Amino acid sequence: MVSNKNRLYIALFPSGVSNNEERRYHWEFLIGPKVEDKPRDPGMQYHVKNHPSTTNLLARIVNAKIEHEPLLINIFCNMMVVPNDPNWRCRTWIADDKIEQLARDYVAKKNEAGRYCKAEDMVSPKPTWNMLEAKEDVP
């Protein structure tokens, strides 16, 4: 039986910072449907600090199938943030070197392939790498 439970995604947006590779992207968690089949799928963004400078989602990385969504939402809403530390940002919140490198490489590959060059591509379903199945769900 196919499971249509929501997924936990890591989402990358342009940050607006161009002279610092570490800060090139804004990082968020997204809770959303397994299959993106509408122009605007329902979902929820969870992020800390510095809001993205744009709504142009670059890519998503499927990180988990959500088994108990209310519990996950509770964790996000009650997670401690680190106050008064300029080095604690959205990327730090995601904080997994393997996922971070995979996501950076994936967006770079899409950029090199011209995926973000045409306006119509920016309204198409977003490139999505599925870590659970080690495959690309949406090119």
Automatic annotation (TrEMBL):
It comes from the Eukaryota. Pfam families: DUF6914. This is Uncharacterized protein.
